[in-house]
Amino acid sequence: MLSYLHGFHAGNFADVHKHSALVLILAHLQKKTKPFCVIDTHAGAGWYDLASLQAQKTGEWKGGIAAVQQEQRVPVDLVPYLDLIEDFVPDNRGLGVEFEAGMDGDEVLEPPLYYPGSPFIVQKMLREDDHLSVMELHPREYETLDRRLYHDRRVTLQKRDGYEGLVAMVPPHIRRGLVLMDPSYDVKQDYARAARSIIAAYRRWATATYMLWYPILEDGFDHELHDMFRQIPATGGVLCSEIAASHGGGKGRMLGSGLLVVNPPYQFDAQLAAIGDWLRDVVHLPGPGVHYQDWLVKAQ
Ligand SMILES: C[S@@+](CC[C@H](N)C(=O)[O-])C[C@H]1O[C@@H](n2cnc3c(N)ncnc32)[C@H](O)[C@@H]1O
């Protein structure tokens, strides 16, 4: 079942949490000249028009990226992410290809504001010899992404199941790298499938960094997820970061955003902790905000 479309949620508080962590990890990978690769198992459409009817319908970005952009003072480690978002302009903007109101039947409102999803955030941070492998299963999201990315020789895109595809693709030719897994959790089995896929990939490629995003729900499965990640014998440890409302979710509503990071880069924990403390008080959560961060497996 593929009912989820990220266009309704782009730029929300969970995207800010996830994408600021993504930019931090990529900045660490850029510190060495040796090429790196990124595998993005659940890619979405690539970027999103926040003036589209989809985004306007939920308005989730107002409590996420817009709330953050209104702040005068931000944590220093959030600046590269904010600069990337602010500077993001889709390549083919102005060509009239994807911006015509008729694309999704959406009306384009002024002023347009585009929010990059994970494939374009990574693409902006790739160097000449770095590589990005992208998987997306939804036919329309895949086609959109293909149109937007096909011209970049550093990027390969597959219409493929990201859980199975990840395990089949590792270890990649370029051995330094990051796996981002950001499922849509249409079905509750996604929690266990994500954990099993990362555990299997880790056995073949133990030096990579893995980042899994998950929603925190009132009746969620994050405890089982944590238990599974506690079994990963990662020398770099397994870090958990959550920004959530302590209550107020209601049935099926997202209380918060969680990240599990296997083998995070050196000092990433301190950077993410400072960002999380700040985001807790700035983004709009459905109730009083709590920020939790701890190691599920200690780094050796
Ligand atoms: C949360 S969205 C991804 C957002 C994107 N990572 C970002 O940060 O901008 C999840 C995406 O996964 C896709 N998807 C769902 N199941 C999948 C699967 N088994 N394999 C690959 N993609 C899948 C959905 O169609 C959806 O576009």
Task: Give your account of this protein's structure.
With 300 residues, the chain is of the alpha/beta class. It has a single domain, classed as 3-Layer(aba) Sandwich (Rossmann fold), CATH 3.40.50.150. Helices cover 34% and strands 20% of the residues. It is globular and about 45 Å long. Residues 93-105 and 107-111 have low confidence and may be disordered. S-adenosylmethionine is lined by residues 2, 4, 6, 42-44, 117-118, 135-138, 141, 161-163, 182-184.
Number of contiguous helices: 10
Bound compounds:
S-adenosylmethionine
Portion of residues in beta strands equals: 15-25%
Spatial separation of the terminal alpha carbons: 40 Å
CATH-defined topology:
Rossmann fold
Structural class: alpha/beta
Poorly predicted tracts of residues: 93-105, 107-111
Q: Under the CATH scheme, which class?
A: Alpha Beta
Fold blueprint:
Layout: H1 13-29, E1 37-40, E2 47-49, H2 53-58, H3 65-69, H4 79-87, E3 114-116, H5 118-125, E4 131-135, H6 139-149, E5 155-158, H7 162-169, E6 177-181, H8 189-204, E7 209-217, H9 222-229, E8 238-245, E9 254-262, H10 268-282, E10 289-297
Helix pairs in contact: 1-5, 1-10, 7-8, 8-9
Bound molecules: S-adenosylmethionine (SAM).
S-adenosylmethionine is lined by residues 2, 4, 6, 42-44, 117-118, 135-138, 141, 161-163, 182-184.
